[in-house]
Amino acid sequence: MDHTTPLLTTRGLRVGIADRTFCRDLELRLQAGESLAILGRNGAGKSTLLSVLAGLREAQAGEVLIDGATYARLGARRSARVRGWLPQSRSEAFSSTVLETALVGRHPHLARWDWESEGDARKARQALAAVGLAELAQRDVQTLSGGERQRLAIATLLTQAPRLYLLDEPLAHLDLNHQIATLELFAALGRERQIASVMVLHEPGLAARFCSRALLLFDDGTTQQGSCDEVISTASLSRLYGYPLREVGDGAQRWFMPA
């Protein structure tokens, strides 16, 4: 694909469940190196929209393109080389080591009967180191805390090495230092490797600090999108969350608190 083509495009996208519409006529274009935060109240359809963007749920109307092609055209394996998906929740049904779990990320890059190579294992170890789990490589995943499992899921995505990351609440279960480290990690990937990311977040201040763009999902199915400077404001957030907010900051960073 031509790398000037947006990594993610939506055309006339309508997403909903049954008679509830979460967004309609959504037009998105996300280029390499850009990061998009999705903000909205509980039940606004953030996770549903992200699953549609990941090709895991059918849209009610419109289409989703990754790197200029539909998921149907690319097929599952080629799609997984372009986009990575972090679901909101997951479980490990079988006992395996942390390293073995991270290596699952290499499956889209292997032929049907291939085994992971030492190069694949090296990529997995580098990903574990990036999230601070290098020393736990031989631990059983069943013994990990919730935050450690979340970081392992992120490491598995890093091992997959897509160019587009779709992240549903990537900060869930993480303490403050790991939340900031995770956002800094994806910001660095955007700068240094030109990956693009879409992430569902709950803290507008973190979205404004670490993302280049924002998409707001309102309860009536309307949306607002643009640069974080344009979209994340006291007026838009007060409408979004149904409660008056005020902005505080030091000139470099902005935070929003109940008024």
Q: What is the 3D shape? A: globular
Task: Characterize the largest beta sheet: strand count, sense, and whether it forms a barrel.
Answer: 6 strands, mixed
Mean pLDDT across the residues is 94
Number of domains: 1
Distance between the termini: 48 Å
Strand % is 25-35%
Which residues sit in consecutive blocks of at least 5 with pLDDT less than 50? none
Order of helices and strands: EEEHEHEHHHEHEHEEHHEE
CATH topology: Rossmann fold
- Structural class, by secondary structure, is alpha/beta
Q: CATH class, anyone?
A: Alpha Beta
- CATH homology superfamily: P-loop containing nucleotide triphosphate hydrolases
Question: What's this model, at a glance?
Answer:
The protein is built from 9 helices and 11 strands. With 259 residues, it is α/β, with parallel strands linked by helices. The protein has a single domain (8-96, 160-258), classed as 3-Layer(aba) Sandwich (Rossmann fold), CATH 3.40.50.300.
Task: Pick out its properties.
9 helices; Rossmann fold; alpha/beta; three-stranded antiparallel β-sheet; globular; 259 residues; 35% helix
